[in-house]
Design a protein that fits this description.
Number of domains: 1
Strand content: 15-25%
CATH architecture: 3-Layer(aba) Sandwich
Number of strands: 8
CATH topology: Rossmann fold
Radius of gyration: 17 Å
Helix content: 40-55%
CATH superfamily: Vaccinia Virus protein VP39
Bound molecules: S-adenosylmethionine
Distance between the termini: 28 Å
Length: 241
């Protein structure tokens, strides 16, 4: 799984967002507001953007923190990321090159569904956070929503065909490689996530579901409201150490 992600993002490199196309100014404003709300009662010294890609989230988060660290398993996605106040390094989510209690906030957008399992990663995140620090994750598909609407989601995916878009631009991206990187393509199990977060020592775990950031139409129709499990596709997690 890790090798597949490293390989995939090394191939796509800094061109990633040019193909994905979901990191719009609206999305940036949405995430900025989420981070502002969470960070307002934190010291706001340092954050970690885990699975940072080419740094979309880091750039947003820097408005709210004095400094940040952007970490990714792929060297190539990090290559062109040069922002003042932002340090960057290659590392794996479950083995962070950080002292204990170094961070106020760890954030991961659209990353969990790329990871084989969460136990070790959540323990590492917990270790790296200061007491009272927050783990924030957003934009992974909920497996409960997928099960409820599997037929429609498969149809939507067939029309959108992300794999073909990537493979036609980057011949190294095969169907198999694409499938391996999207390990939880049918969603993450939020009950298992909650259990792993609890076992890692997190408290006050909030898991919510929303539609914002899928596309222009869903943003207009559903807005930024949160919904019950099964009624919205995207999972947002906020957990405190
Ligand atoms: C869908 S991209 C999201 C990038 C970024 N968070 C954003 O929203 O713009 C997923 C990122 O997670 C990284 N990744 C996947 N597995 C990882 C792991 N085990 N450790 C660190 N990064 C990982 C990938 O290399 C990729 O850059």
């Amino acid at each position: 799984m890790k090798a597949a992600n490293r390989n995939f993002y090394d191939i796509v490199g800094p061109n990633y967002e040019g193909i994905d196309g979901r990191r719009t100014p609206r999305m940036s404003a949405f995430l900025s507001e989420q981070i502002r709300r969470i960070a307002q009662d934190l010291p706001r010294e340092a954050f970690l953007d885990l699975g940072c890609g080419n740094g979309f989230l880091s750039k947003v988060a820097l408005k709210h923190f004095r400094k940040g660290l952007a970490v990714d398993i792929s060297l190539n996605v990090l290559r062109e990321l040069e922002v003042e106040g932002l340090y960057k390094t290659v590392a794996e989510a479950d083995f962070l090159p950080l002292k204990p209690a170094a961070l106020d906030m760890v954030m991961a957008v659209a990353v969990l569904h790329h990871c084989f399992s969460f136990e070790r990663m959540f323990k590492e995140i917990h270790r790296a956070l200061r007491s009272g620090g927050v783990f924030f994750s957003d934009h992974d598909l909920d497996s409960g929503f997928y099960r409820r609407h599997a037929f429609l989601i498969r149809l939507y995916r067939r029309m959108k065909n992300d794999q073909l878009r990537y493979s036609s631009r980057f011949p190294g991206i095969t169907k198999e490689l694409f499938a391996l990187t999207e390990y939880h393509e049918n969603g993450i199990d939020t009950d298992a996530v909650r259990k792993s977060l609890c076992e890692a020592g997190f408290q006050d775990i909030k898991i919510k579901f929303h539609w914002y950031g899928m596309n222009l139409w869903s943003d207009r129709i559903f807005g930024q409201r949160t919904y019950e499990k099964g009624q919205a596709p995207l999972v947002r997690i906020i957990a405190r150490k």
